[in-house]
Structure formats: C-alpha cells, structure tokens
Design brief:
alpha/beta, UDP-N-acetylmuramoyl-L-alanine:D-glutamate ligase, nine-stranded mixed β-sheet, four-stranded mixed β-sheet, binds adenosine-5'-triphosphate, binds magnesium ion
C-alpha cells in the first residue's frame, strides 16, 4: 500500500483587498496546505483530503488540485448543496488584516473520520474552527494504530460575531483538543489565547507555556512568531527541549497569506522522513519564509522556480 497523508480543513473562496485597495479572488484555506503537501511529499505518497466543498466551488477545487503532479484521492471530498465558505481579507498593514467569514461547511463526524484510519499521518488545519467535531478527532487519536496527528489550531482560537468578523476568545474544550493530537501548531496569538493570557503574551510566557504543553502528552509543539521564526518544543528522553528557529533570509516579504499552512505541511513531510524535530522545523521556516516572497497561492510553476531551487541544501 502506498503511504497516505490525510488532510482535514476547509477550502475557502478568498477575496483579498490589498493595501492599495485592489480586489483579488483566489482559492484559500486548505488549498495552501494541500498545495504544499502535494509538492513536498514523496512522489509515491497519496494525499487524501476529507471534508465538504460547496457546490459552487467543487469543480474549481478539483480542477486546480488535479494539476499537481501527485495522486490526490477525491473519494472523501464531498460536494454539498450549499454555497462554499467565503472569506474577505482586508489588509490594514503589511502584517495585519481584517477577516469577514460566511458560514462554515458541515463538520466531519466520528463516522466520517474512519476514512482516514490507515493513513500514516493526518494534518488537521482548523481553517474555520468548525471543520471537524472534537469527538471525531478523538476517535482518530484512539484508533489503532493511530496516524500521526498534526493539528494547526488556527481559527479554533477565534470566535465569530454577527457580521462575520472574527475575534480571539477562550478556546472551548481546549485541553481535549490538545490531547487529541500528537503535534500542535499555534501562532503566538493562538498560544496566548490557549494559555489564557488574552491575545498577546510575553516571549518568556510563551516559552513557559510551550514547555508545559510539550511536557504533557504531545510529542512536540510549535509556536510560530511570524517574521521572528518559530519556537519548537519537543520531548526527548523525558526532558523538554526547546529551540528558537529564525527564518532563513529569503528576500523581501510581499504576501504572508498561507505562511502558517506552508510551515505545517513542510514540517510534516520532512518529519515523516527524517523523524528529526529540529531539522524539520528549520525546513518549515525556510519554506514558510519563501511562501511570503511571492503574491498569491502556490502553483506548480511557482514551486519549480521560487521554492524548489532554495531547498536543495535541505535534503533530509
Ligand atoms: N514576515 C515574515 N518574514 C519571514 N518569515 C515569515 C514572515 N511571516 C511568516 N513567516 C514564516 O511563516 C511562519 C508562520 O507564520 P505565522 O507565525 O504568521 O503563522 P500564522 O499566523 O499561523 O500564519 P497564517 O496566517 O498562514 O495562519 C513563521 O514561523 C515564519 O517561518
Ligand atoms: Mg495559522
């Protein structure tokens, strides 16, 4: 059987309003994760997304993903008779933006998640926060053998008000979400929220919190810090090690959308081969940094010309 990576999350119809007021339509959300997994995983690895796509968007998604030179299994990507989730992203400064979101797709249930047993790894990226039911992730974690579960907490730390605007809020059943994965990815605001500090925490508090997380049942935890790289926490011989990894210089950053997604996909594909937390994190920072150097979403052409030539020194 070929190796399979399961993928959970929501594809988004993105409308991006740039700083100079231009409007650009693109495919966002889980697309970034899928695109990086497809380009970075071994040639024989199959990618299996599980979830729901609105009927107005399904054909676009299928056509776009099919151009990757990779086996993507569409069997459990279901078309649903409702409009796909749409997000309007308005840039306020180069590193901050406001988001307006329409309703999510139906969450994956415990019965549906069984499609991913047998995967070597599953990357769950909580793009809307209602992509998957907590019970379903728990079911996957309890399955034997459990795939390696990589969870990007992302929008779970965000509530949504009546107008569709998202805001940081305490995470419901936070401890259970953490216990349902093996490797956790948070950005600094998500980490601060998970720790109960509100939206921001000091560097020292983030380090303490990461160490506490990695001392529990997690194998590892990433706290990403935007342009400052990331903090890696992992357990080795019953002690928690941590490392602050800086992004390698990659040239001017012009568009940070998808950096967190590039980070997760790059870490996971590298780690599945190398089993080396530190090396995989250096690779993830390199790929995520490169993701910021071009405008728009990753395409096979951009991968070949912008990303691939910069990765040759990172063979695992
Ligand atoms: N301005 C930047 N310069 C260089 N690297 C960056 C920059 N912004 C992000 N990165 C890279 O991307 C990684 C993830 O970024 P960030 O911490 O912003 O995640 P995120 O908030 O989850 O992103 P996303 O909006 O995609 O969810 C960082 O650890 C870093 O490697
Ligand atoms: Mg993120």
């Amino acid at each position: 059987m070929p190796q399979r990576i399961g993928v959970i999350g929501t594809f988004i119809r993105d409308t991006i309003v740039t700083l100079d007021g231009k409007t650009v339509e693109s495919i966002g959300g889980l697309y970034h994760t899928l695109a990086y997994l497809a380009h970075l995983a071994d040639a024989t690895t199959e990618i299996q997304p599980l979830g729901f796509v609105g009927e107005d968007f399904y054909d676009t998604i299928q056509k776009t993903l099919t151009q990757f030179n990779k086996k993507i299994l569409f069997t459990h990507l279901h078309r649903v008779p409702q409009p796909n989730t749409q997000v309007t992203l308005t840039y306020l400064t180069p590193e901050t933006r406001e988001e307006l979101t329409t309703p999510g797709m139906p969450p994956i249930t415990s019965a549906e998640i069984l499609a991913l047993t047998g995967c070597e790894a599953v990357l769950a990226n909580l793009i809307t926060g209602s992509d998957i039911a907590l019970e379903a992730l728990k079911t996957l974690r309890k399955s034997t053998p459990s795939p390696l579960i990589y969870l990007d907490l992302h929008s779970l730390a965000l509530g949504i008000d009546k107008s569709g605007k998202r805001y940081y809020r305490p995470i419901p059943e936070a401890a259970d979400w953490v216990a349902a994965c093996h490797i956790l990815q948070l950005n600094e605001h998500e980490a601060a929220t998970l720790a109960g500090f509100g939206k921001t925490a000091t560097y020292e508090d983030l380090v303490k919190f990461g160490q506490t997380l990695a001392a529990g049942n997690l194998l590892a935890c990433h706290i990403t810090l935007g342009s400052a790289g990331s903090l890696l926490f992992y357990r080795q011989h019953n002690t928690v090690d941590y490392e602050h990894v800086s992004p390698a210089p990659v040239g001017p950053v012009v568009d940070i959308i998808g950096c967190g997604d590039a980070f997760g996909a790059a870490f996971l594909t590298h780690f599945m081969k190398s089993k080396n937390f530190s090396a995989a994190t250096h690779f993830a920072n390199r790929v995520a940094g490169l993701n910021g150097t071009f405008v728009g979403s990753l395409t096979p052409d951009i991968f070949r010309h912008v990303i691939k030539p910069q990765l040759d020194s990172f063979a695992s």
